[in-house]
Specification:
With 344 residues, this protein is of the alpha/beta class. The chain contains nine helices and 18 strands. β13 and β14 form a beta hairpin. α1 crosses α2. The mean pLDDT is 96.
Length: 344
Amino acid sequence: MPPEWARHTATWIAWPHHEPDWPGKLGAIPWVYAEIVRALHRHERVEILCHNEDVREDAREKLTAHGCDPAGFRLHVIPTDRVWLRDSAPTFVHDEAGNAVLVNWSFNGWAKYSNYKKDREVGKVVERLTGYGRHQPLRPDGKPVVLEGGAIDVNGAGLIMVTEECLLSPVQERNPGLDRAGYEQVFRDWLGIDRTIWLGEGCVGDDTHGHIDDIARFVSADTVVLAIEEDPADDENHRRSMDNLRRLEGGGAPPLRILKLPFPRAVVMDGQRVPASYANFYIANDIVIVPTFNDPMDRVALGVLAECFPDRKVCGIHSVDLVWGLGTLHCLTQQEPARRSPVA
């Protein structure tokens, strides 16, 4: 599996349409998506799944209003339940010849929601639209492996980060009976992983129950940014992030460089804390888009990531409304890597 900063052919997203994901705020969300496409589409093509013809026309209208060049995006009428393609779309990997192929994990609505049948078919749709080969990982007992892209983060050189909360907890259990060693074998077989780094828990408010992409991300082969809550008054995120820092610092050889990324102050809507995190950034060709939250730490987070990616523009995307859907920029995107030259 190539790292996210490797060259892309495209970014895949799905246009928002499911009002219960953003109760009372759906009207604002397509405009946020249009801004995301505006930021990305001059650097790489954006492939956009639209639930029906009405949704496609809404997408076209918003993208036109934002001055997006039609040459930089394509609209496909494809039914979906939700829009979180990081989790429902397949993972793009390279075969030995350097061609992109699809690792089509099974999807079960994060072992929480019942409306996921359309999203479970997204892998077949991407296969048809791209012409890439599609493969479904199976467990030793013959059952398909359930996994979301937001649960994994790789450095492209044999390392992967995951959390125990997401993969090993009996809460929202994706693969009953699959243990730590079993997951590590799946990662070796399907993603070319040599070593798995197990962090503890994800951030407060994450309804996926511990996705890695809200707390820790590789930014190079030997560098990780880790979301850290320094304030003990935010006791739960402070405890979790300090534990994850200790795990990374004691992670074994080769040692990793660890950079601290702040959390914004808590974002609460209708009495519910939502998973506002700068770690949910997305790395595209020549640009990194970063969720921002009208918070003094926005500037700090953008500065940290600008130092990590000196050869890319770092662009904040206002995400206070977006995060009401319990995800932001990384959750809604899925990268399609460019072909890799085969190793001699």
